[in-house]
Every structure is written in C-alpha cells, then in structure tokens.
Design brief:
Chain lengths: 225, 244
C-alpha cells in the first residue's frame, strides 16, 4: 500500500472533531432519555391501556421500526416545510432520533413489563397503590434491573448509528465534521480513522458510565470490562 | 354484629365458577380458619375480600357496612381495613425490607417517613426481623420473607388480617417462626381469617373452623368438634386423610 498517512492535518482541526464528538454525545443522550420516556409510556399503554390506545401505540411502533431512520429524518427536514413547519437540521435529527428510539424502546421496555412478577403487582394493588404508583415503584425498578443490558446496548446503537445519520442533512456531529473537514483537503482516510477511534472512546466512556450507573442505581451486577 | 360477614358470595376465576354461595361471619378479635382440599375455593374467598377476584353475587360486610366492589372508592376503603399476606410472600424484590414495610404507609396514606420508619422497625421487631431491615428479599430465607410480609401487612394498620396459606411455601423448619408471629397477633386480639393446611396450628389458634369443598361451605364449627367429630361424610373423609 503506497498511501502516505498525514495525520498533522487532522490534529490541526482536532478541535472541530472534538466539538463534533460533543454534539454526538449530546444528541445520543437526549434522544435516548426522551426515547425512554416515550418508550415507558408506550410500554405502559401496551400493557394496561384500553384497546384503541393500544392500537395507536402499536401502529406507531410498526411504522417507525419498519422504516429507516434516515427516511424519517428526511420527512421531518424536507417534508414538513411543505406544510409550513420548518425545523433546523439539528432539531430534525433530534426529534427523528427521539421518535425512533421511543418506538424501539417501547418494545424493549414492554419485555420488561411482561417480566414483572404479577404477584408483586397484586400485593401493591391490595396495599392501595394506584396503577401509576405501581408502575413507578414496582415496574420501573424491575425493568431497569432486568433489562438493563438491553437498554445500555440500545444507547450505544443510538449514540453511534443513530446520530451519524445527522451528517446527511448537514448536522455537524462527529461523522458530519469528519465529512466537512475531509472535503477541504481530501484526507478522508485520516479523518475517518480518527473519527472512528473517537467513536470507540465515546462508547467506551458511555459503557463505563452506564455500568457504574446501573450498579449504583439499580443493583445491576454489570461487569465494566 | 360480626366484624366481617360473608353472605352467599359467588365468584368466578376467569370463566370457571369457583365459589357457589359462601356464608360465614367473623367476630371482632376472632381467629377463623378456612380448611379443605386444594381447589375448594379457600384462597378465592380471601382474594374476593380484597377485591382481587370479582364477586358475581352475594355481599360482603365489614362492621355491618356492605362493600360495593364495583366502586373503586369502596374497594380502596375495604383494602384500608383488610390486609392480606400471600403464600408466596410477594415482597417487592427491588426494595429493602424496611422500604417494603414503609412504602404503602408513606405513598398511600401520605404519612411522614420518619414516623413510619420508626413504626416499621417496631413491627419488624415484633416478627423478629429488625436486624434485617436493610437487606433485600433475595438475601432472606422463605420464613424470613414471610415474616417481613406479615410486618408489611400490619404496617397498613388493618382491622382484619387475611393469611393465605402463609406457611405452605416454607421449609418445615421455618414454619414455626411464622406461626409464632401469628400466635402473638392472635393473642393481641387481631381479627384474622386464615387459610391453612397446618391442622395442628389451626386447631390451636382458631375459635372457629370452616370446612370448604368444591366452592361451598360444608361444615362450620369449633375446632374440637370439626376435627374430632365431623358430621359430614366429606369432612370425615378429608380429616381422616390429613390428621394422621
């Protein structure tokens, strides 16, 4: 291979990559957190709500999980302006990713709802806890503990695969920044090598953070390495 | 007036009718036991009382007031007065022993946490579990979990305590520690309705024994009469098999 790697151009613009990584982390954390709330409501509806509401949630999940995130974000960015709704490219990515995460998390969290021991729910009911209280004190901690690995895994998926879709509509997250910079001096290979390594570092930090959070908050016996 | 009166109740479990007109009454401070073969509907009676299994006909009265199980407020009021302890303990696995006991008093009754915790520790001491207040249920034996479940039920300050085969899931060696806790409650004058297969214990603590079979009350009487000289054929057959 005759390629002559020249990383100094990358280091000169490293600040831009760093700011991209920061935006990636912000997008990932926000989309995941908001997605968890949507997912929690969705899973609660699938488990306890009357039929029409359940159908509505099911339709939402089917629609989102069976279409690519890229197309959903395209609709938000290029489609909505036709109806007079104009959001910035960052807002479109954020909202698109949040809805996307919400649909997937509805299904992930539903598995958690299904695995709650019915007798704990009955005990809570006879003790006078309302349904929202039972969800808050019995279901959520149980879900957090029992499907924590699946949740943590999905966070990484959002963080890496989800956010990078933003590059296509000009959001300057890590992938976007790498594309921007490399179109200036054509050092694609260098920029993308460094960007890839930065993703690895990002997910590594996120994994450790999630494992510590899980141990501290939910008594999950998560291994860090 | 009886503390608890059950008048000709019918109930279904899904589509299967399991209770066909159950009648009995429990006086204040009395310990009444439901005995009979598995599937006779004993547990369903307790579940119906706390509104877990719907009653399709008949009525249930507490202190002479009929409870309308169709009205959520009435069900809440009924659960306020009756607490149930389950065969499988049903402790909240994600909470410490202390939190299991304090959850409902703080979140349902809205009482101050410090006050509730103090009382919870007293109740845990009563059942001999105060030294495990910070443990999680999965760190306890079955007998210990069941004693915590009893403390948790008592924290609701029930007038009537319902005990559903509370020793059936326990190792034989652990049965006595739970029975001791119930004995001391009986001595304090708590109104109790218990479903049990511990015949010697039933005989010792009960003032009245109700023998059920196939969703009906077959025979009611004081323990000595019903165990030693059952009048019905079915009861004679049952006790002949279990009291040996």
């Amino acid at each position: 291979m005759d390629y002559n790697f020249q990383f100094n151009v990358v280091w000169r613009n490293f600040d831009a990559l760093l700011s991209g990584a920061w935006l990636t982390l912000q997008l990932g954390v926000f989309a995941f957190s908001a997605g968890c709330l949507i997912g929690l409501v969705g899973a609660a509806c699938l488990s306890f709500a009357p039929r029409p509401l359940r159908w509505l949630v099911q339709a939402f999940v089917i629609f989102i999980t069976n279409t690519p995130a890229l197309i959903q974000i395209y609709f938000l960015y290029f489609g909505l302006p036709e109806f007079g709704i104009r959001w910035s490219n960052e807002a479109c990515v954020l909202i698109g990713l949040t809805l996307n995460a919400g649909a997937y998390l509805t299904m992930i969290l539903r598995a958690g709802f299904l695995s709650v021991r019915a007798n704990e729910m009955e005990a809570g009911e006879t003790m006078g806890l309302s349904l929202p209280q039972r969800i808050r004190y019995i279901v959520v901690p149980h879900i957090a503990k029992s499907i924590y690995p699946a949740l943590a895994n999905f966070f990484i998926v959002i963080l890496v695969m989800g956010t990078s879709v933003g590059a296509v509509i000009g959001v300057d997250e890590l992938t976007g920044q790498a594309i921007n910079l490399s179109t200036v001096n054509y050092r694609w290979l260098e920029y993308f090598t460094v960007a890839a390594l930065m993703y690895v570092v990002l997910t590594f930090i996120a994994s450790i953070g999630l494992a510590l959070l899980g141990r501290w908050a939910f008594r999950v016996k998560a291994r860090i390495f | 007036m009886p503390h608890l009166a059950v008048n000709a109740i019918h109930a279904k479990y899904g589509k299967l009718p399991v209770l066909h007109g159950i009648d009995f009454a429990v006086d204040r401070g009395e310990v009444v036991s439901l005995v009979g073969p598995s599937g006779s509907g004993k547990s369903t009676v307790l579940r119906a009382l706390v509104g877990l299994t719907p009653v399709t006909a008949g009525s249930i009265e507490v202190d002479g007031t009929c409870i309308d199980y169709a009205a959520p407020r009435a069900v809440r009021a009924a659960r306020d007065r009756m607490a149930i302890v389950f065969q499988q303990y049903n402790l909240f696995q994600n909470m410490t022993v202390l939190r299991n006991v304090t959850l409902a008093p703080t979140k349902v009754k809205g009482r101050a946490r410090a006050e509730v915790e103090e009382e919870a520790m007293r109740l845990l001491k009563l059942v001999g579990m105060d030294h495990k207040a910070t443990a999680y249920p999965d760190e306890l034996s079955g007998g210990q979990q069941q004693r915590v479940a009893i403390a948790r039920a008592l924290a609701l300050k029930p007038e009537i305590l319902l005990l559903d085969e509370v020793t059936s899931a326990l190792d034989p060696e652990l049965v006595n520690e739970v029975l001791d806790a119930i004995r001391s409650l009986a001595a304090e004058g708590m109104t109790m309705l218990l479903v049990s297969h511990e015949m010697a214990f039933v005989r010792e603590v009960s003032s009245k024994v109700i023998f059920m079979d196939a969703g009906q009350v077959v025979e009611t009487g004081d323990p000595a009469a019903i165990f030693d000289a059952p009048s019905s054929e079915r009861a004679r057959d049952f006790f002949g098999k279990v009291l040996r």
